[in-house]
Amino acid sequence: MTNTLSDTTTPQRRLTSVLRHDVPASLVVFLVAMPLSLGIAVASGAPLVAGLIAAVVGGVVAGLCGGSAVQVSGPAAGLSLVVADLVHTYGWRATCMITLLAGVVQLVLGVFRVARAALAVSPAVVHGMLAGVGAVIALSQLHVVLGGSPQRSAIENLVELPAQIAGNHSHAVGVGLLTIVVLIIWTRLPAGLRMFPAPLAALLVAAITAWMFGWDVSRVDLSGSLDGWVSPLWPQGDWHGIVGAVLLVALLAGVESLLCSVGVDRLHDGPRTDLDRDLTGQGLANIVSGSLGGLPVAGVIVRSTTNVRAGGRSRWSATLHGVWVLLFSVGFAWTVQLIPMEALAALLVFIGIQMINLGHIPHLRGHGEVPVYVVTFGGVALLGLAEGVLLGLGLAALLALRRLTWVTVRLRPDAGGRWHVLIAGSLTFLGVPRVTAGLRAVPPGTAVDLDLNIDFMDNAAFEAIHAWRLEHERSGGIVHIDELHDEWYSLAASGARMFPAKTPLRAPERWWLPWADRRRKGLPNAGATAVTTARSPAGGPGGPDLLAGAHEFHRRTAHLIRPILTRMARKQEPSHLFITCADSRIVPSLITASGPGDLFTLRNIGNLVPRMGSAPPEDSVMATIEYAIHVLGVRTITVCGHSGCGAMAALLSGGVEVEELPGLRRWLRHGDHSLARFIGTDSDGTDAGPLDRLCRLNVIQQLANLHTYPQVVEQVAAGRLELVGLYFDIPSARVHVLDRENFEPLATDRSRQIC
Question: What's this model's pTM, rounded to 2 decimal places?
């Protein structure tokens, strides 16, 4: 990524950076901007010099006054259809006045700091608009390449295309095809040659070839040069249409510029774009461009990306590129007149096809916005730019409304005949049919647990649910309503005043985050409260994090879990004995998604199960196994190891790491059988290192050690007990299950069940 200059850079370093990075980058952008500006002027039906004026003004004015350090502004292909229509309707001089007035609108919007509102436009609409414009440009200019004339609409261009292909084989066709061929193969040339911009190379090849062979082609005409300036003229016609044209140019140019700024910000790690200042700068540039007879100005992604990749680091690269365009237009304009018009048309065909960027489709498909893209594209291509954009915006608004009012209804009966119903979303009158259809599926007279996870409920939705509840209870059923998010139903039932605003979403609890991460993210339980700090200063008993966590448990969780624990207060009935390591990174309830009363847990260093009769004796493990089997009646004993186990690392070191820890050294003797299995076993076929291979084999050995306990063997033989081996890979947060002698990753589609 390019590192743009910061405001704290010294003047000497800034000058050095400009000479070293910005000047070369500005030359590259200049070489790209020249042919593109001429081509866009052709597509817009404007004088060719208007494209050069817009390039100069966009570079100098928008470059100096804009809010982005590296964005390059100039004539934009996305506005060419609008300009062409304005030229046809009002004439060129009036179009310049519309551009000037659009700049005034942008300037006012920037002063009132509303630039970020433009980011509310769906990117699917923008991409669809640009793709539609690209298709229209490519189709119309393809007729010029083939030696004909473009028609008024994309459909007419398509209809006339076969005749153009069959009936025109002049020198103009050869120039156009040669230009396209050079543009295509240029990207496949060595990197050294590709430093020369492809558009300029294609135009040079076409111009030189046409000159050498004496081909009969039309040439670029710059007779309306900079010294032939005429003032803008007030447009004549219905003022409603004029106002609409001004707003259309202002909004389209502004949105394209702001989205370009956001996109370019991703390419460098320097200062972010000031969007309000950028909109103000674009407004000033359009005022100047319209006054001088130039095309509308907008930030252009192609030139901006070229600037960043060429090493541009400050606004001087964009500014200087405008200076180079001005110097070239004044001193070397005669060279432009050597370019065949058919070559410029071929360049526009290539640009138009590139604007149809299908790379956006996968991202849009993931968010369900492909219909917006397709409708906008089709509307722009078939009806017009304004019509297509309005169609796209309308469909995007409808889809957003549909998502905002989408209601989820899930029904699940349990074995006892009780039904569990979940209704989630924003409950409005639009969701009533779906809610009532789901509730009608509940059999009459049954007990129902209705969970409402909603952030809004209007009167229609309340009446629908309340009427169903009364009817269900009259049929002998029982309805217990639990509102998980907020008490919209309870408040409505009590007659309290309902406010129209939606309930703000609660931040995710993220109870599983370590204390340090919770502090860093500013989440609840991020540190000791005043109460806990006073009772337990740093370093005091329990520590501030532990007591703060207990305080947060009382505040957020205790009241939710109290009914469950009250039911379990007299007796526990776990179904699993879970033997795992004391490692702080292993959280059994987290990796098994279990709750209170599910797991009877035994933790020790290395998740070891000493063999029956081993020395030194270990009654704690034996007592746990006996109690789990004979008193609790567990159905499964699980041994769970993990990657990077410190106990296994100590075994591999031959006890060197624990020489000064006599208790731990004695305990690790129970892992000798695991070490022996490791030494006597070849690689398990994975790319795991020695430590992780021992960690896996250790789980297998502990399952074998469990078979030395007579009560375990007896229960397994009777089919009342199952032994399971798990392995938790910490870096990938992935649980693996033992399958014979190897561990397999646990399937995420639940095709494999642990118990």
Answer: 0.60
